[in-house]
Write a structure and sequence with these properties.
- There is one protein chain.
- This protein has 354 residues and is α/β, with parallel strands linked by helices.
- Helices cover 38% and strands 13% of the residues.
- It contains eleven helices and eleven strands.
- α4 links the parallel β1 (74-78) and β2.
- The radius of gyration is 23 Å and the shape is elongated.
Length: 354
């Protein structure tokens, strides 16, 4: 019988204290990120995660798994720490919560990895101790190629790669944005404008497509494809403020102000609302603003933000269900799962002034 892989064994392997290993595997503060990743890598290579009650948390929180009927295996959750993709995010964190709850109900553990370099990721990855992978958010092709190369089953949430065949889970961005746009037009808005970088992600692109389709079907005039508001940079940190401020003031001077701004997500919409108020606009009397995702801050905006509620936990749960189904039926056709999303009506939208 193989000897149990203990925290002390990992500590001896690395030449560090058991205390450091414990802190690293529990996700507690007090260990620098380099040491934490070294511990995770060694634990994976030594087979620590295949054991009962083994767990890891590379950021802040995780689910402890005991999986008695699946060889006590864990699922790898890959969420590279780029853009705003962290567990502290009001969007991504909720998705990870949904994954954690679904795995816990199946008695499986969860290994969260925030690595974004392919060479480091290969060292962490131990396919013998991992049941499959759920990718969350933007992930480089090089990382996904490594997963595909070793044949590890995977499901991607809110991301897809044309080079990597995999099951995917998205909110139904096209239909939801189309319904939101139709709602605004039904309220009387005839000058609508989309705000966000349509090259940023597949979800942003799909939301633009939904917006454009609604306008086309209603015979509305479409923004030009080279419109600067479709290629905003600095959305993650709000540094697009100046670019948007210059744009809205040009529109005001030219008397071509839109009556409604449809933003690609809530974070953009909240920043846009702040800039508009700074520039002397009254919301929603002068301009209506909408977001997308329904993060917690959306309801705390001034005014509270009309948005689309993306069932983030449900997306995580659906990804786990799909991964387990894929494991049992590896030759089944690949699927793109779309989760319905509903409009949340709040005070940031009103009828346009005549």
């Amino acid at each position: 019988m193989a000897k149990k892989v203990t925290m002390q064994k990992i500590a001896d392997h690395l030449g560090v204290s058991k205390f450091v290993v414990s802190k690293s595997l529990s996700g507690k503060d007090g260990v620098n990120e380099t040491t934490r990743e070294r511990v995770i890598q060694a634990a994976s290579q030594l087979g620590y995660f295949t054991q009962k009650n083994a767990y890891v948390q590379s950021i802040k929180r995780t689910t402890q798994g005991v999986g008695s009927d699946r060889n006590k295996q864990s699922v790898l959750v890959l969420m590279p720490n780029i853009r705003s993709q962290t567990q502290d995010s009001l969007y991504w964190g909720k998705i990870v919560d949904g994954i954690a709850l679904a795995l816990d109900s199946e008695g499986l553990g969860m290994v969260i990895v925030s690595e974004h370099r392919a060479d480091n990721f290969v060292n962490i990855l131990n396919p013998n101790g991992i049941l499959g992978l759920v990718g969350v958010g933007q992930i480089s092709t090089s990382l996904l190629l490594e997963v595909h190369r070793i044949g590890l089953p995977m499901v991607l949430i809110d991301h897809e790669d044309p080079l990597i065949p995999s099951d995917t889970v998205f909110a139904n961005n096209v239909d939801s944005m189309s319904r939101l746009s139709n709602h605004l037009m039904g309220t009387g808005h005839t000058r609508l404008h989309f705000i966000g970088n349509i090259r940023y992600s597949r979800s942003f692109r799909d939301r633009w497509i939904g917006f454009r389709s609604a306008l086309e079907e209603s015979g509305m005039r479409l923004p030009m494809e080279d419109d600067e508001m479709l290629f905003l940079e600095g959305m993650d940190d709000g540094t697009f403020r100046d670019e948007f401020k210059n744009w809205i003031n040009k529109r005001k001077k030219a008397k071509t102000l839109p009556t409604a701004l449809i933003c690609a997500n809530d974070s953009i919409a909240l920043t846009v609302s702040e800039v508009l108020k700074e520039e002397g606009f009254t919301l929603p009397d002068d301009i209506s603003v909408t977001g997308f995702d329904n993060i917690e801050d959306a309801s705390r905006g001034v005014p509270p933000l009309t948005t689309v509620h993306v069932p983030k936990e449900a997306m995580g749960h659906a990804a786990v269900e799909k991964l387990l189904s894929r494991i049992h039926n590896p030759s089944a056709p690949l699927e793109k799962i779309l989760i319905s999303a509903d409009i949340v009506h709040r005070e940031s939208v009103a009828e346009p002034r005549s």
